[in-house]
Amino acid sequence: MGMEMDLNSEDDTPAGNRNRQMRLIRLCRAYRRRREELLLRQKTMEQRQKELSAALVEAQYQLGRINSEIAEELETAQRIQEGLLPKELPEMVNLKSAALYIPAGKVGGDLYDIITTPRQKIAILIFDVSGHGIPAALIGAMAKMLFSHYIEKTDSAADVFYYVNKDLCRFIHTEQYLTAFLGFIDPVNNVMSYARAGHAPPLLFHAEDRRVTRLDAKGFFIGHSALLSVAEYCNETVRLEPGDKLLFYSDGLTEGYNGRGALYGGERLGRAFADSGEGDVRSIIDTIVKSQADFREGTPLRDDFTLLCIQVGDSERLLAESGFSREEAPSILVATMLHEIDNVCSVILREMDRYGFTDQSIKQFKICVFEMLTNAIIHGNDGDPRKKALVFYKVTKTEATISVVDEGEGFDYTAVPDPLLPENRVRDHGRGIFLIRHYCDEVTFNAAGNRVMGRKFQGRQ
Amino acid sequence: MEITSGNKGDFRLFRLTGQFWRREDMEALDQNVSICITAQRPWVILDIERLSFISSQALGMFVRLHARCSEAGGKLILYQPRSSVRDVIELAELHQFIAFADTAEELNVQMSSKGSGGTRPSGDAPLHRRAKES
User: Fold this and answer.
1) Chain A partners of B55 at a C-beta cutoff of 8 Å?
2) What is the pLDDT of chain A when averaged over all its residues?
């Protein structure tokens, strides 16, 4: 403003004019300098902007690369974890099963398995690793291997937990841990012994009165090194009746929330199980999953969950079919296809070896087991892999007994032709029963003709 | 079961190793012997020294192969069965009509005799037939 007043001054003297001109020149110079400064600053800022844009693009690229690496790793972890879940549940004697795993993210911490132990118990395992993602998957994989290892060695769930806990504590030095439930079902005697390591207690639906009870047991969770010295597990036993159903689950199921922040909870689960308990195992799982989804009203799951349902069959009927008495307490194996015969044979013959049967007796009995099972699978079950050949056996110091029951219509064992008769000698079949009769000391068939029972005494050739 | 093959004189020799009860093993042996029969060389030795187990169905396969070789004018010889397998074969009385040999000498005798299943090829078999074998 002052400058304008100077420039507009009415001093028309030459000195005044010169003065104004000088001021004008200075003003122009100042303006030009300022303009150059601004242009330079603009240029610098444009350059800086370019650099920042390039850096941003680079950062975005790096971020994308890291993201895709993480996604790839998560997918690998997911595949590893899926590989640890059973592809299909095993054929079991006297038990039916169905299972479902619902993931909440890419990699969860739930795992389950059903394993037939070397002592012919059915091990039901479910566990849940704390947290999610790759660390949970890694610990899950490690725990799964350890559980499988120790389940092979002992039928005491508490002992399995003790050893797995001890091993995991040696390897894991983070705050992560896992909860687990392990039950060993004796399918012939309908009893389950079990232990719980902080896991959600399974539910038992009693077929007789439609009650639902919880299978509680004391036990700390597994793998947290701070609890190594205090972790204790104890075995409990529950008697199972024909038609009873067991429901194993992880807490992701009961911890489902709805939009109002309410929890699905154990009580609702118990009611859903009681309402659906008379259905088959698959429909029970479907009903419970629907019940929880209806409750959530579209609210996303916070945690993955697993459901495993087991139906108990009638062991009395099973024993009656086998030809053994309850006192004899036979072990049981199952075969549906020919390639499984070798394994069945190995189990029985190892027992005979353990009890001191001669090599010759074992070889002869092997022929009997092969022939009985081949007949049951090929002729009795007509080669249908959906049908089972049940193998009951008992080996003692004095005798080895086997009973093979198929699901066929039976045959008339009195009408089997003698392969040694001249007219039969060159036939290319019909020698199986002949070999069984020769190599067993006692052979009996049931009236229906779908069971053969053979016995070999120690010391007889 | 493993099947390896070779020649022993004018006979085709198949060595069976392991346990003989699986359907695929029976099919494999059947196929091998069928090739001999189709090639008009139905003289077959089954070396079963290394066979540790045999089922009744496998016994039936021996009977079938014996019948096919005999029908084609040839012979099937079971060679060197170990005691447990021999016991089963004798129990089923297969040794009554299928040629057996426990030793190399017995095998030579069986190879040179006409046997129950058919005739042995003459030592002067056509050259082109021998060439195919080699």
Assistant:
1) 367, 370-371, 374, 432
2) 89
How many structural domains comprise chain A?
3
The token duo for A256 is 């489902």
Same domain assignment for residues A424 and A372 = yes
* Listed range (A56-65, B22-31, B84-93, B109-118) with the worst mean pLDDT: B109-118
Would you list the domain boundaries of chain B? 2-129
pLDDT (tens digit, 9 = 90+) per residue, A233-279? 999 999 999 999 999 999 999 999 999 999 999 999 999 999 999 99
Nearest-CB residue to B55 (from A339, A370, A428): A370
Q: Does A460 lie at the interface with B, CB-CB under 8 angstroms? A: no
pLDDT higher than threshold 50 for residue B116: no
Q: Does A425 touch chain B (CB under 8 A)?
A: yes
Residues A8 and A140 in one domain: no
Q: How far is residue A452's CA from residue A401's CA, in Å, rounded to a whole number?
A: 11
Is it the case that residue B132 has pLDDT exceeding 60?
no
Mutate to test the interface with B, among A367, A378, A420, A440 (most CBs of B within 10 A): A367
- Tokens, residue A10: 């009415």
Q: What is B2-129's CATH superfamily?
A: STAS domain (3.30.750.24)
Q: Using 50, 70 and 90 to split pLDDT, how confident is the model at A136?
A: confident
CATH (domain of A354): 3.30.565.10
Q: In terms of domains, do A68 and A183 share one?
A: no
Q: How far apart are the first and last CA of chain A?
A: 131
- The answer, yes or no, to whether residue A53 has pLDDT greater than 70, is yes
Q: What is the CATH number of the domain that holds A229?
A: 3.60.40.10
Three-state DSSP string of A86-114:
CCCCCCCCCEEEEEEEECCCCCCCEEEEE
Interchain proximity A363–B64, CB inside 8 Å: no
Q: What does the alpha-carbon distance between residue A155 and residue A182 come to, in Å, rounded to a whole number?
A: 10
Write out pLDDT tens, residues A402-446: 999 999 999 888 888 888 888 888 787 889 999 999 999 999 999
A338 vs B22: CB contact, 8 Å cut-off?
A: yes
Least confident of A192-196, A366-370, B114-118: B114-118
Taking residues B21-40, report their average pLDDT: 93
Distance from A402 to chain B by nearest Cα, in Å?
A: 18
Range of the domain at A427: 328-457
Among A76, A109, A129, the domain boundary falls at A76
CB A436 within 8 A of CB A444: no
Residues A249 and A345 reside in one and the same domain: no
Q: What is the pLDDT of residue B129?
A: 30
ipTM at complex level: 0.78
Amino acid identity of residue B73, one-letter, is G
**Residue A214, beta-bridge partner list:** A203
Strands (E), A147-284: 178-186, 191-197, 203-205, 212-214, 236-239, 245-249
Instruction: Tell me if chain B has a CB within 8 Å of the CB of A422.
Output: no
Cβ distance B56 to A374 less than 8 Å, yes or no, reads: yes
For an interface test with B, the pick among A431, A435, A439 (most B C-beta atoms closer than 10 Å) comes out as A431
pLDDT tens-digit readout, B32-48: 999 999 999 999 999 99
A323 in a structural domain: no
Buried/exposed A183-206: b ≥16 CB within 10 Å, e otherwise: bbbbbbebebbbbbbbbbbbbbbb
Q: Which of B55, B64, B68 to mutate to test binding with chain A, by most A CBs within 10 Å of its CB?
A: B55
Residue in B with minimal Cα distance to A340: B22
Is A129 domain-assigned? Answer: yes
